[in-house]
Amino acid sequence: MKPFRAPGWLTGTAIAAVAAVNLAGLWGIAVARQGAIDEARRGFGVEVTSRATALESRLSGVRADLAFLGGSPTVARLGGDAEARLLRQSALLLFMRSRIEVVRIVVRSADGEVLAHVVRRGGVPILSVSPSPTGEEGAAVDPSRARLTANLPREEEATLAGGVTIETEVEPSALLDDVAGGPEALRTCILSDATGAVLARRRALPRPDDAPGGREVQAQAPVRAEGWSLPGPLVLACSQPEGTVVGLAEPVWARYRTTFALNTGVMVLALLLGGLGVQQARRRARLEARAAEESRVRELERQLFHAERLTTVGRLAAGIAHEINNPLEGMSNYLTLARDALGRGDTEAAERHLSSVRQGLERAAGIVRQVLAHADPAKAPKTPLDLNGVLRETEEFVRSRREFGHIRFDLDLADGELLVRGSPVMLGQVAVNLILNACEVQPAKGEVRVSSRGEGEHVVVDFADRGPGIAEADRPRVFEPFFSTRESTGLGLSICHTIVQQHEGELTVHARDGGGSLFRMKLPALTDGAGGDGAEAPVS
User: Where does a domain end: 179, 212, 247?
Assistant: First the structure.
């Protein structure tokens, strides 16, 4: 099975494409909303301009209506009798009722005589009783501010009927309220002259959704006031909270709001799923690579374990060859003696010699079976055995090897039998490895001491040497596979530890008093009646 390959750049490109498409959609929606907002702001400026035009029309209309009124016989003949004069002054009152921004009208004759004087008080036009107006009468007059007045006719205009002149004054605030469209239309409007002097100001009531201290949108437009007393052009400046102006674009924004939310959600979900997919793919690739590596390591461990066991068999065979040679030499001698006895006709002596030959054959066969069992120890069954016997045989085998002639062996076994349930071949392998290791690390005239004892429900065996010992920092790792302080494979002690664990025991290492190391094997003791003659399943 080929390992799974992460999508790499292809997945990254797909995620980038999804993100780019969604970002383009979001950008388009944002641009459309900003365009609607800009259009609403332009609309606000157009509205202010239209109101300035309406203001111009109101001022021009006042002058045009007064010029028409001044040219009519009604105003030109104000100088008749009292009844006729009162009737003609009523025409001026009616004019002021239709023009709420006009607060004063004075009609003079050609020689300057006041023919009529109409003012507005309390919002109601009335005839003034003052025979000679000073220009400071009327409810709209405030000496502290500039006045917006006009005289008809001007020098370049034709004279009115009867040579009369008309002087009029308008209230800028009333004029501004009339064209502003009520308090709900605009936030704040200011009417000022060309010098910047404020003529009128109108503030709308604050809206509940207006943020205090927020940004405002401003616009202004000129107001031509030809024929009026203040220098022109006048300026109409209006401002409104930005939220109110932007609210004009709300219908356009509401059209895209659901699309905006869904698009954002899809983009976030796509990025999350894409990132999760890449993460899972990389995680799967790492797991498969790790599994392949672990499988390879396990195979190498199996091969090394097998090689170590074969090495142990080789070491055993090198010593066992000497053991096999002894019975072979004895068998050869006994066969010679049996032949000589037969030659003399002593059949009884020949039979005794052949019996000795048979014993030698059985001994050699037993040694061969032991070697074969070491070659495949997993098939060795667990049976009740005397651990002291295994230790004696192992110690005698290692002692017989010439290369360890300089080592002093001390065997201190418990009295009687130490019964355990296990494989004599596998436990013999543990004893051989531990004793051989103890011998190989010894300098000249070294010492190996093997002792056994019973401790409650356990049997304890100590393998002690007088070698350099094992550093305290290395003791926790001494039974790990491939760990070695002697440039070996590092599998011998690991195999011994595994075999002891398979026998439900434990193998530990300690520092020996006086120098050296002490390996302690602890196995469950076989109590009376716990044994059996039947063989158990092989140990894996």
Answer: 247
Residue 489 sits in a domain whose CATH number is 3.30.565.10
**Helix or strand or coil: residue 423?**
coil
Which residue carries 């440039």 as its tokens?
Answer: 487
3-state SS class at 123: coil
In a domain, 504, yes or no: yes
Whether residue 363 lies inside any domain: the answer is no
User: Which residues, in sequence order, are CB contacts of 342 under 8 Å at separation 6+?
Assistant: 350
Per the domain annotation, does 55 fall within a domain?
A: yes
pLDDT band at residue 539, thresholds of 50, 70 and 90?
very low
Contact 164, 109 (CB under 8 A): yes
- Mean per-residue pLDDT, 499-506: 90
Q: What digits encode the pLDDT tens for the residues 40-78?
A: 788 888 888 988 888 888 888 888 888 877 777 666 666
Domain containing residue 121: 9-247
DSSP, res 481: T
Nearest to 312 by CA among 215, 418, 174, 425: 425
| Total domain count, the chain | 2
Strands 165-170 and 188-192: what pairing? unpaired
Integer angstrom CA distances of residue 317 from 373, 396, 438: 12, 14, 19
Instruction: Establish if 298 belongs to a structural domain.
Output: no
> Beta strands 383-386 and 419-422: pairing type?
antiparallel
Query: How far is residue 34's CA from residue 28's CA, in Å, rounded to a whole number?
Result: 10
Q: And the tokens for 375?
A: 């070659």
Is this model's pTM higher than 0.70 or not? no
- Residue-averaged pLDDT of the chain: 77
Question: pLDDT tens across 199-228, in order?
Answer: 888 876 665 555 555 678 888 899 888 888
Domain final residue pick, 247, 274, 291: 247
Distance linking the first and last C-alpha atoms of the chain: 29
| Per-residue model confidence as pLDDT tens digits over 245-284 | 666 566 666 666 677 677 777 777 877 887 787 788 888 8
